[in-house]
Amino acid sequence: MDLSTLLSPDCARCAVAGTSKKKVLEIIGQLAASRLSGTTGFDVFESLLNRERLGSTGIGLGVAIPHGRLASATKPVAILLTLEEPIDFDAIDNQPVDIVFALLVPEDSHEQHLQTLAAVAQRLNDKTCTRALRDASSDQELYELFVK
């Protein structure tokens, strides 16, 4: 999968000050809403929070992949954040999270959603990739490192 079709440069943010899981999900909501017409930041936040209630999307090794479906979405939208300081995300390995990749897809895109999540998880399970993302010093560098 070509990850550059999923993540746009303006949706990659480096060294974000997120003090809690909820705050990070709110930040993602605001960024994603600007890319989704007819969707508010609160709509995105609620979708992500509802998914988190089913179980944490913290996949371990300092990485979380919050995701959700939106009736108002017509295309997938992704947000990539590195956090200034790691936060508790209730990850499966109980380690704090400092890399967050959020994915929002149209409500009826079940198969695409699963395939995209698998591709992103594979990319973020690569320790060389996550090390480089953590070392990124600008939003543009973060974007380029993820999509290359």
Which descriptors apply to this entry?
alpha/beta; Mannitol-specific EII, Chain A; protein kinase activator activity; 148 residues; protein-N(PI)-phosphohistidine-sugar phosphotransferase activity; 6-stranded mixed β-sheet; single chain
Brief rundown of the structure:
With 148 residues, the chain is an alpha/beta fold. 41% of the residues lie in helices and 24% in strands.
Structure, explained:
By secondary structure, the protein is α/β, with parallel strands linked by helices. It has one domain (3-147): Mannitol-specific EII, Chain A. The protein is 41% helix and 24% strand. It has five helices and six strands. The protein has helices at 21-33, 41-54, 110-124, 127-135, 139-147, and strands at residues 12-16, 58-60, 63-64, 67-70, 77-87, 97-106. Strands 1, 2, 3, 4, 5 and 6 form a six-stranded mixed β-sheet that branches. Helix 1 crosses helix 2 (41-54) and helix 4 (127-135) runs antiparallel to helix 5. The relative contact order is 0.21.
